[in-house]
Amino acid sequence: MSSLNKVLLIGNLTRDPELRYTPSGMALCKFGLAVSRKYKSGDELKEDVAFIDITVWGKQGETASEYLSKGRQVCIEGRLTYSKWETDDGQKRSKLEVTAENVMFLGGGRGQGGQGGPQDTSDGDRNFEDDVPF
Question: In angstroms, how far is the first alpha carbon of the chain from the final one?
Answer without folding.
Answer: 57
